[in-house]
Prior knowledge:
This protein has helices at about 15-30, 65-70, 75-80, 95-105, 105-110, 130-135, 150-155, 160-165; strands at about 5-10, 35-40, 50-55, 55-60, 60, 80-90, 115-120, 125, 145.
Amino acid sequence: MSNRILVAYASRAGSTQEVAEAVAKALREQGQEVDVRAVREVRSLEPYAAVVVGSAARIMRIYADAVSFVKQHRAALQNMPTAFFVSCMTMKEDNEKNRETVSGYLKPLTALVSPAAVGLFAGKMDASKVGGLMGAMMKKAKVEDCRDWEAIRVWAAGLPAVFFSNQPSSP
Ligand SMILES: Cc1cc2nc3c(=O)[nH]c(=O)nc-3n(C[C@H](O)[C@H](O)[C@H](O)COP(=O)(O)O)c2cc1C
């Protein structure tokens, strides 16, 4: 059976897409076959042996398309190894309180599917990529990129062992 992994992301300003691509790169470095797709583009999980779902958060909520994706594919995800990650500015400071807050953002997903692994990462704030009134209000804010590529790589590199350790090894 193929061990192809899907990394599905929800991103509005593009930074979580880049985190998803970094996750995929680290998985490929571990010898895995990987597809990276926006959650909205995924039609079927049939080709996959495991799935990583990543999202950012705005106003204390992970993105609605990540929640819709997990709702829609709930039955399949419950039967395969699944990991979730969040990339957001609360994790700029990695401490117990912020981990608890950001773990809370994942509740709409973890209520549906129990993850084999969870990654909580700092994100990137770029007001020029935020639309509407919110973007206009934040216009003068500096771009702040807090993504820790090494932490992301280390987490992702550990996923194959978590996902597939119970599988019988090939002869
Ligand atoms: C309007 C707005 C609201 C945000 N609200 C939160 C929040 O409640 N908690 C948090 O940790 N990060 C928050 N963030 C930070 C984003 O999660 C972070 O910038 C993330 O990396 C954006 O991901 P994206 O580029 O994939 O959309 C907010 C960002 C914006 C622009």
